[in-house]
Design goal:
Length: about 80
């Protein structure tokens, strides 16, 4: 059975993610408030950002930058 949540990205009830895809408290918030479709949109945007800004996910500063972008993308609409 699909998990239905109120997606804060789309501002409507939507199918939730199957599992917590990001660690920690932020991951829990994403799992509880961001739909599967919204998370897919973020993954697409993340890929674009990594490529455009030539980010290296082994670099801690670059990972922090992506996390900042993720928070803005998912929660500041």
């Amino acid at each position: 059975m699909n998990r239905i949540i109120f997606c804060t990205f789309f501002k409507k009830k939507s199918e939730g993610q199957d599992f917590q895809s990001y660690p920690g408290k932020l991951g829990k918030k994403i799992y509880d408030q961001i739909s599967k479709k919204a998370w897919e949109k973020w993954i697409e945007k993340q890929t674009i950002l990594i490529n455009e800004e030539n980010l290296n996910m082994f670099n801690l500063e670059h990972r922090k930058k992506i996390e900042k972008y993720m928070k803005l993308f998912l929660f500041k609409k």
